Amino acid sequence: MTTRIVELRQGILKKNDELARGLRGRFTTAGVLVLNLVSSPGTGKTAFLERTLRELRARGSRAAALVGDLETDNDARRLAASGAPVRQINTHGICHLDAEMIDRHLAGWEGVELGALDYLFIENVGNLVCPSSYDLGEKIRVALLSVTEGEDKPLKYPTLFNSADAAVITKMDIAEAVDFNRATALGNIREIRPGIRIFETSAKTGAGMEEWLKYLAEARAEKLA
Amino acid sequence: MHELSIVSSVVDAVTESLAAYPGARVEEVRLRVGALQSVVVESLEFCWGIATEGTPLAGSRLVVKTVPVVMHCAACAADVELEGVQSFRCPQCGQPSNELRQGRELEIESIEIEDGVTN
Question: How far apart are alpha carbons A208 and A52 in whole angstroms?
Answer without folding.
Answer: 11
